[in-house]
Amino acid sequence: MGITIQNITGNTAVVIWQKMASCVDSFYSIMYHPNWNSMLSSFPRKSFQKEERVPTSRSSFVVENLTPLTRYIMCVTCQSANPSSDQCRVFNTLERDPASASNTKKELALGIWLTSSILFLIIAAILFYGCLHLLCRRRRERSQEQDRSSKQDYGEAWTKSVAYTSEFSRQRQQMQDTEEKHPGDIQLATVIENPSACNEPVMSTSKSQERVPVTLQCSAI
């Protein structure tokens, strides 16, 4: 297939091959593996670490994410079978170039920043939810305390009202009982409460049937 490896760097390499008109598959398989041992006599597909598939209309492919200063074996085949030795090439990657190292550092810094931002947002969301939940619980507890206080005040007022009504009923019953037992006392009390009746003379009748006027002294109440 006339496979050649060009433009080798520390992380990339370009593999070029000749198109085969007899290829019945719709794609080419590009397989590569690092730290290849030249003593291997066969090339089983399962032993390759990576495999890429490209359409048969193409005759080149850029392999990326290679390890610097590493020996690779790369094979290109149009059959879904194990490649042969004439379909493979061995090459060594170069040292890491400064531009690639700078890009790697930028990607690493960007990944760390994104991870930190996501963690910060998660922590902020958790704290906000916790504060909101605590605030709602305190409001609910305060509302329950106010309800209990209102119910307690209403119960005390109701108890006082019932006690006052009971006392009033008891006093009224006592007054009714007293009126039933001593009707003369109630009439006397009525007379005493009338100030105009205190100044009039009262005729006292003795055993000798003589009427003697007696003046009743009333104290002002």
UniProtKB/TrEMBL annotation:
The keyword Ligase does not apply. It comes from Grallaria varia. The chain crosses the membrane at residues 110-135. The keyword Membrane applies. CDD domains: FN3. InterPro entries: FN3_dom, FN3_sf, Ig-like_fold. This is FNDC9 protein. It comes from the Eukaryota. Keywords: Membrane, Transmembrane, Transmembrane helix. Pfam families: fn3. Residues 1-96 form the Fibronectin type-III domain.
